[in-house]
Amino acid sequence: MESLLSLFSFAFGAIIGSFLNVVIFRFNTGKTIGGRSCCASCGRTLSWFELIPLFSFISLGGKCRKCKSSISSQYILVEFFTGLLFLLVALKELSFFSDLSPESVLGVVVGWLVVAILMVVFFYDLKHMIIPDSLSQTLFLVAVGNFVLNLFLFNAGVGYAYAHLTSALIFAGFLGLLWLISGGRWIGLGDAKLATSLGLLLPLSSGLSALAFAFWIGASVALVKIAHTRLSESQKRITMKTEIPFAPFLIAGFILSYFMQSDIFHISNLFL
């Protein structure tokens, strides 16, 4: 039974990931989400067997069946990681499928919705360096809905409310302050909006940990990119003033903290 539920969670996530690719590529382009998929190079409408999540990309060798042009690796990355995260959410919230209580099922549904939205934000921000308000607003509605249901339907209590509201305020307040002080040069307002929802989804200790992880990961990636461009012959130099999308790091920090249930204060004690 556990194996079947695990397989279902991963497969369902991969299918959702396939749909998310459509959203990412067509968002704000004027194209409808419901149109038939086609090759980005030759325009040929794809057959059903070319749209099977993961399998089609691998079997085609990452190339169009007709024109042989390369297919963006984003397709398989989104499908795989959405499937993987759907599986991990189910395992975490359902305690490896041993807890099927309404509260745990709600955790899975909310977790899957959050993963789907964050996957779109992650790749869209990487490509366009902007977080559409509609995505931030949708995530905020999910976070508020989760907060209200846990508080009033499952009687989470005052401690729950304090921990999550404080996390949201600190998350949003800190990034909002950075945006205000820098005039948007250090960080975008969209990042602060996104942070509000991420903070509300986590208790205070995990929220602080997610914020720390985001800056650690972001700084590490930036330093690696700077070192790489200086060592290579690339003419496009990356400096400390180069704009780098921050939402992917926020999302990575959130995911790490969510699954690890990290407490940054406990982690810091390891080095003292």
Tell me what you see in this structure.
- By secondary structure, the protein is an all-alpha fold.
- It folds into two domains: 1-98, no CATH class; 101-272, no CATH class.
- Helices cover 68% and strands 0% of the residues.
- It has helices at residues 2-26, 55-59, 74-93, 102-128, 133-153, 158-182, 189-201, 204-231, 247-260, 264-269.
- Helix 6 (158-182) packs antiparallel against helix 7 and helix 6 (158-182) packs parallel to helix 8 (204-231).
- It starts with a helix and ends with a helix.
- The relative contact order is 0.09.
- This is Peptidase A24A N-terminal domain-containing protein.
- Keywords: Cell membrane, Membrane, Transmembrane, Transmembrane helix.
- It comes from Candidatus Zambryskibacteria bacterium RIFCSPLOWO2_01_FULL_43_17.
Task: Provide the helix percentage.
Answer: 55-70%
- What form results from the Cα inertia axes? globular
Radius of gyration: 20 Å
Main sheet overview: none
Number of distinct beta strands: 0
* Domain module count: 2
Structural class call reads mainly alpha
Mean pLDDT across all amino acids: 88
- How many helices does DSSP assign? 10
Query: How far apart, in Å, are the first and last alpha carbons?
Result: 45 Å
Any low-confidence stretches, pLDDT <50, length ≥5? 268-272
SSE order, one letter for each helix or strand: HHHHHHHHHH
**Strand portion, in percent?**
under 5%
Features:
globular, 272 residues, single chain, mainly alpha, Prepilin_peptidase/N-MTase
